[in-house]
Amino acid sequence: MTSDKTPDHDVKHETASDVWLPPARELAEYPPAFVDSVIKMAETQQIHRHQLEEKALQANIALRKIELSLEARGQAFAFCIGIVALLIGATLGWKGSQITASVIGGGGVIGLVTAFLRSSSTVPAPQLSDSQKKAGKQTAPQSPPTG
Question: pTM score, two decimals?
Answer without folding.
Answer: 0.49
